[in-house]
Write a structure and sequence with these properties.
Layout lengths: L3 E4 L1 H5 L8 H12 L5 E7 L11 H6 L9 E6 L2 H7 L5 E9 L2 H8 L3 H17 L3 E7 L12 H15 L3 E6 L6 H11 L7 E6 L6 H10 L4 E4 L20 H7 L10 H12 L4
Parallel strand pairs: 1-2, 1-8, 2-3, 3-4, 4-5, 5-6, 6-7
Length: about 280
C-alpha cells in the first residue's frame, strides 16, 4: 500500500498576515494539483474574523483546474454553518473538522466545549454525507498540549472509538497541534492506535521544527502510519494554539524520509515547480 499524502496550502497560508491575492492562491494550488498528491487541503469555510487570509476560499475554488488531477479537495469547517457552505460545492471531497481532546484548545479553536463539539460532529457529518462528502476528524492536541489538560495514547484511542461508534467516521488525522511530540511518543501513539482501527484511515498531521522532521516521519511510518499531512517549506502551524507557530512537516523532508517505492504517484518535475513557486511567495 502506497503512502497517502495530503498537501496543505491552507495550513501554510492561514497564519500569514500579509494578504495573498486570490489569483496567487489559485495559481499555486493549480500547480499542486499537477503533482499527484492524494488530497489538497486547499481552504476553509470558517469565520473571516478568525482566519481572514482564507475568506476567499469559495472564489479560489472557482479558479481551480480539476479536470486532469488525481487529487481530491479538502476544506476545513468549524461548525454547521461552515459545513453547509462547503456542502454547496461538488468539487470538495472531504470536510475536515478539528476535534480536540484538550478542552482548553477546543474552546479556543472552535468556541465550544467537547460535548458541544460532539454535537457539531454529528450535524456536520450529516450535512457532508447528504452532499456525498466525507468527514475527516483531526484529533487535535493528540500528542500533548501547553495548557496542562490530560492526554495520552489511550485517551486518543478512546475518542477515536467514540467517534466511530457514534457517527461512523472513517478518516482521522492525529494532530500534533503545538509541535510537542517526540520520536518515542509518536511511535507509542501509532503503535497503540493503529492495530485497534484497521478499517479506518488514521494519518499523521505533525507540526515540527526542521531538524526533527525526518525522524518524526520515520517514527510514524515505522509504527504503521501510511497517511501524512505536509506543506512545502514547512510553512504553517495553528494560529489558535499559541503565539509561536510550529510549522508543518516539510513536504521535501517527508519525501526524502519515506521509501521511494511508496511515492511513485508523485510527479517530481511538477513538484519542483511547486517548490519554486512557494519559495517565490506563491507567485
Amino acid at each position: 500500500m502506497s503512502v497517502s499524502i495530503t498537501e496543505c496550502p491552507r495550513d501554510a497560508m492561514q497564519g500569514l498576515e500579509n494578504w495573498i491575492p486570490t489569483e496567487v492562491k489559485a495559481d499555486y494550488i493549480n500547480q499542486l494539483l499537477k503533482v499527484g498528491f492524494d488530497v489538497i487541503d486547499f481552504g476553509s469555510f470558517v469565520s473571516p474574523k478568525s482566519i481572514p487570509q482564507l475568506k476567499d476560499t469559495a472564489e479560489v475554488l472557482s479558479r481551480l483546474e480539476l479536470n486532469n488531477t488525481r487529487s481530491k479537495l479538502l476544506a476545513i469547517v468549524a461548525n454547521e454553518r461552515g459545513a453547509k457552505d462547503a456542502s454547496q460545492f461538488n468539487e470538495i471531497a472531504f470536510q475536515g473538522y478539528p476535534f480536540s481532546i484538550s478542552p482548553t484548545f477546543q474552546k479556543r479553536n472552535t468556541n465550544s466545549t467537547i460535548e458541544e463539539s460532539l454535537k457539531r460532529v454529528e450535524s456536520i457529518n450529516e450535512i457532508a454525507r447528504k452532499s456525498n462528502q466525507e468527514l475527516l476528524i483531526y484529533i487535535s492536541m493528540a500528542f500533548g498540549n501547553p495548557y496542562g489538560d490530560k492526554w495520552s495514547p489511550d485517551l486518543t484511542s478512546s475518542w477515536i472509538e467514540t467517534l466511530i461508534d457514534r457517527f461512523g467516521i472513517k478518516h482521522f488525522a492525529l494532530a500534533d497541534t503545538a509541535g510537542v511530540s517526540a520520536v518515542r511518543l509518536i511511535q507509542d501513539m501509532f503503535e497503540t492506535v493503529m492495530p485497534s482501527f484497521e478499517d479506518v484511515q488514521i494519518g499523521a498531521h505533525l507540526h515540527s521544527n526542521p531538524e526533527s522532521t525526518v525522524e518524526k516521519v520515520v517514527a510514524a511510518y515505522s509504527a504503521g502510519c501510511r497517511s501524512f499531512d505536509c506543506a512545502i517549506g514547512g510553512l504553517g502551524g495553528c494560529p489558535m494554539a499559541e503565539d509561536d507557530l510550529v510549522g508543518n512537516v516539510d513536504t521535501i523532508k517527508l519525501i526524502n524520509g519515506l521509501p521511494k517505492v511508496e511515492l511513485e504517484h508523485i510527479n517530481l518535475h511538477e513538484f519542483e515547480l511547486a517548490v519554486s513557486q512557494s519559495k517565490n511567495g506563491f507567485n
